[in-house]
Design a protein that fits this description.
Elements: H1 9-54, H2 56-83, H3 100-121, H4 123-146, H5 149-164, H6 167-182, H7 186-216, H8 218-233, H9 236-247, H10 251-262, H11 264-275, H12 279-287, H13 292-326, H14 334-343, H15 347-382
Helix pairs in contact: 1-4, 2-3, 4-7, 5-6, 5-15, 6-15, 7-8, 7-10, 7-11, 7-13, 8-11, 9-10, 10-13, 11-13, 12-13, 13-14, 13-15, 14-15
């Protein structure tokens, strides 16, 4: 960042003329991903599910045979344990478990083989899935890198002020930017910013509609909540494995890992916020003849906005927490610098990059918290 010099007046015009192109490429790449590549990928995934459903009886038969054999192995081991008459405290240390052979068959047939089949058969769909997303990431990163640092600082500080309306938070943001610049982390920070912006956009685009569906249907709510619980409680290193198999070591793999980890809060709090809207308000809008969409966009979502923004705030915090772990699968930016410092046992470098991530998180958290407080006050005044 800061490669552009203002020594010549013509460079300013070059900068101003290239800004619309960068913005257009970024928006076009994201739109192509959402409108074209994602539906195509979902279509191929639906075909795979259909083919899997056709072969479901045979698959269930194989699974039942494996489970019966595994169950017989447990019973056999337990029977041998009982009749062995070797009763002692030491004999109770090991639970009679499945044999190694049955465990291998269960893992290969139940998990690894179906996933490997999907990855091998629909690899082309995965490439179509990530190509526009990679282009959007590159365009956004190039746009931030091309921007002179005074312009970048001014835009960030203006955005922080518009969100928080507090000079103290603006000064904190300025201190964070100066810290990042002084230690030469600006380029890495721009990569982290591009990763964060796209990941939050994807979390909001997919998370808020999913939360709305959950609030509209108890069946959807019961079906999705266990998945969200699994996404939040599963160790992050576990779902890095399928992401790594499908997308390889690349920035897009890191982006997908961040989205999976950070999406649940905005889904949960959107659902919760809509469900907490007073029943009398919903009934009043219904009595005036409002359709569901009119009630949704005119009553439910406006009243649920504080909870929605709280979910977005938590999503941003979780995304920043995932930046370092996602660097293991190719996520660029400050997280990769933290891993590099860990690999070389460089405490100073680790503290610099880690502090930069922490400062970014603090500024975002305080800004969104103050924005949420303002929304709550406006809501109370409105009532």
């Amino acid at each position: 960042m800061g490669d552009l010099k203002f020594e010549e007046f013509g460079d300013i015009w070059i900068f101003l003329l290239t800004v619309p192109g960068h913005l257009f490429n970024m928006i076009f790449g994201l739109a192509k991903f959402l409108v074209i590549s994602l539906p195509i990928t979902l279509f191929h995934f639906a075909i795979w599910l259909w083919n899997t459903a056709i072969g479901l009886p045979e698959t269930l038969f194989k699974a039942a045979r494996i489970l019966v054999g595994a169950g017989w192995g447990v019973i056999k081991n337990f029977y041998l344990f009982v009749v062995s008459n070797e009763w002692s405290w030491n004999s109770l240390n090991d639970f009679p478990s499945l044999t190694t052979q049955f465990r291998v068959l269960l893992n290969l047939g139940g998990i690894n083989q179906p996933f490997d089949y999907f990855a091998g058969s629909y690899g082309f769909a995965v490439k179509e899935f990530i190509l526009p997303l990679r282009r959007a990431m590159n365009d956004l990163r190039d746009f931030i890198d091309f921007m002179p640092w005074p312009v970048f600082f001014a835009l960030v500080l203006l955005l922080v002020y518009l969100i928080s309306r507090k000079i103290g938070v603006v000064m904190l943001a300025l201190a964070a930017l100066v810290f990042i610049g002084v230690f030469g982390l600006m380029e890495l920070a721009s990569q982290t910013f591009s990763l964060m912006i796209l990941s939050i956009i994807l979390c909001v685009v997919f998370g808020i509609p999913l939360g709305i569906f959950m609030s509209a249907s108890d069946a959807v709510d019961r079906a999705v909540k266990p998945i969200l619980d699994l996404m939040q409680t599963m160790p992050s290193f576990v779902y890095l494995i399928p992401v790594l198999i499908l997308f390889g070591v690349s920035p897009v793999a890191g982006l997908i890992a961040v989205v999976i980890y950070a999406m649940p809060p905005v889904v949960r709090l959107t659902n919760l916020g809509i469900r907490l809207v007073p029943f009398e308000v919903v009934e009043a809008s219904h009595a005036f003849g409002a359709t569901y969409l009119q009630r949704l966009f005119g009553t439910l979502i406006p009243l649920a906005l504080p909870n929605v923004f709280a979910g977005i705030n938590q999503t941003i915090m979780m995304a920043l927490a995932m930046v370092v772990i996602a660097a293991l699968v190719g996520a660029p930016g400050l997280g990769a610098e933290v891993l590099s410092a860990q690999g070389t046992v460089n405490l100073a470098l680790g503290l610099q990059s880690g502090t930069a991530v922490a400062l970014i998180a603090i500024v975002i958290d305080r800004s969104l918290y103050l924005y949420g407080e303002r929304m709550q006050q406006h809501r109370k005044v409105g009532h």
